[in-house]
Amino acid sequence: MAKVLVVDDEPNIVLSLEFLMQQAGFEVETAEDGVTALAKVEAAPPDLILLDISLPGISGFDVLEQLRQEPLYARLPIIMLTAHGREVEKEKGLALGADDYVTKPFSTQALVEKVQALLAEGT
């Protein structure tokens, strides 16, 4: 069973993503900030990360950048989540190595399909 790490500081979003991913058949871990997310990746790397950009402490962009600098995690699928659908943020996320980008509020079905497609690529 694939493991998805959900990183978001909004409890209601974490709950809905956790439920959504579990319904789709994934094991789910959560983190409410970037430091916790990096620690969880180190301890037990997930198969995919859903990463919010706006986090307390270090941003999702910083988390993404740090993970991409590690050869171990260079290929780890990461989908950025943001409440800001600004093109400049999307370009920055993709330039830093995000695999995909989803703007909140998002279609639950579309998000599940993106996660499944990225995980299928890696197998």
Could you please describe the fold and organization of this structure?
The protein has 123 residues and is an alpha/beta fold. 46% of the residues lie in helices and 20% in strands. Helix 1 (11-23) links the parallel strand 1 (3-7) and strand 2 (27-31). The radius of gyration is 13 Å and the shape is globular.
Strand order of the largest sheet: 2-1-3-4-5
Please give the count of helices: 5
Strand fraction band?
A: 15-25%
Helical content stands at 40-55%
Query: Structural class, from helix and strand content?
Result: alpha/beta
Q: Spans with pLDDT under 50 lasting ≥5 residues?
A: none
Shape: globular
Number of strands: 5
Radius of gyration: 13 Å
Domain Response regulatory: 3-119
InterPro entries: CheY-like_superfamily, Sig_transdc_resp-reg_receiver, WalR-like
GO cellular component, one term: protein-DNA complex
Protein name: Response regulator
Task: Summarize this structure briefly.
This protein has helices at 11-23, 34-43, 60-69, 87-95, 108-122; strands spanning 3-7, 27-31, 48-52, 78-82, 100-103. The chain is α/β, with parallel strands linked by helices.
Question: Which short descriptors sum up this protein?
Answer:
123 residues, alpha/beta, five-stranded parallel β-sheet
Task: Please give the structural blueprint.
Layout: E1 3-7, H1 11-23, E2 27-31, H2 34-43, E3 48-52, H3 60-69, E4 78-82, H4 87-95, E5 100-103, H5 108-122
Parallel strand pairs: 1-2, 1-3, 3-4, 4-5
Helix pairs in contact: 2-3
